[in-house]
Amino acid sequence: MSLSGNLKTVSFPDILQLLATGKKTGVLEARTATRQKEVAFKNGNIIFASSINSTEDLLGNMLLRRGKISKTDLERAIALHKQTGRQLGTTLIDMGLFDKQEIGECLKLQIEEIVYNLFSWEEGDFIFHEGAKPSNAPFTIEMNTMNVVMEGTRRIDEWMEIQKVIPPDDVLLDVVASPKINREEIRLSLDEFRILALIDGEKTVPDLINMSPMGEFVTCRSIYSLINQKLVEPIGRRDQEKEEVEDEEEVVLSIIFTLYNQCFFRIRSAVEEMLGEDNNCFGAFSAQYRGGLLNYFPGLDPSSDLAPSFDKFLEAFKAMPAATRHHQLMSGLEQMLSEQLEYVFRLLGTGVYRHAVGRVKKEISHPLATRREVVKRFKIDEDFYHSLKRAEKVVKMIREE
Predict the structure, then answer these.
(1) Closest to 270 in 3D by CA, of 28, 14, 21, 31
(2) Residue pLDDT, tens place only, 172-191
(3) Which CATH number fits domain 166-237: 1.20.120.450, 1.10.10.10, 3.40.50.300, 3.30.870.10?
(4) What is the pLDDT of residue 66?
(5) Which of 59, 85, 205, 317 has the fewest CB atoms nearer than 10 Å to its CB?
(6) Cα 122 to Cα 161, 337, 357, 358, distances in angstroms
(7) For the chain, what are the domain ranges?
(8) Distance between CA 60 and CA 372 in Å, rounded?
């Protein structure tokens, strides 16, 4: 089976479904300029995953963070592993430090973290090596690929909600000294309790992720819950140095320009994957939006030479009456986004529509993570989600006809 391409045009969940339904055996390799990951399959099920050149470190550090092994024992095990050439997991079992079940649990968590991380990749080359076997695998653990797809998709939606609440990377977190909640009402999961024990007013979200034994997603979900329960709060930025004054309007417009251009590109790509690039039906439909500021959102690959420039968009925006230009821009983008998604449903049905919505939703996560305060203050996220709800409402009405 020849399967290769770029995640810009074929999403990672689609690749997983293809390999699962085809009951394929082999290794899927995905790489960017700085990252490389491999996922191994047997009869369509995931059996192993690794981040190249860091598998042993991942397992060792995971055991260390979980308090399962001392630093001294880990160093001994790594030294022995290098001398014998046997895998670290196997070496730890041979040394009597762990049994196979304990190592298996940690490997399962490691595999999940690697695979779920790939759900967030927007680009990167991939190739499936049919019949290949995973390298550096002490043993394998079989996971139902379709269950992984369902969980990964659910995590994308949940991650969007989490990103709305957790603070930026340079903000310190501390335990609320006098929480305004009855002790009887406090209900903490084991994961939340573990994270709460790490919070001391001197750590940021990235610090907690690095120290946590549970991986990035579970850690951030726990922080999200603790903040919502008003048990943990942000207490200020780690670096209080005066920041360079920036033009806030230009920052907002840059976020809007990047976010919506990416969204329209994702929608057009979803249609072209089904109908081919030579089919112009979607291009003919989207031509109705050519006018005014919407000219700067053509649905082209933002990285291509043909994509419009932000500077020209900014110049056109500032030439409009100041009192109405922001409202005019956002109302036009909201209508354009919802109507394009509705058109995808009418043209290609529920599956492709859901696929396009999923791709679009992922685009909001980056501005929410990097410029959350600006996004919230100017209600960029509210306008974005309103567009999606508007499209969903129309799709629901069509189904009920």
Answers:
(1) 14
(2) 999 988 887 776 667 888 88
(3) 1.10.10.10
(4) 63
(5) 85
(6) 19, 19, 14, 12
(7) 3-145, 166-237, 248-400
(8) 34
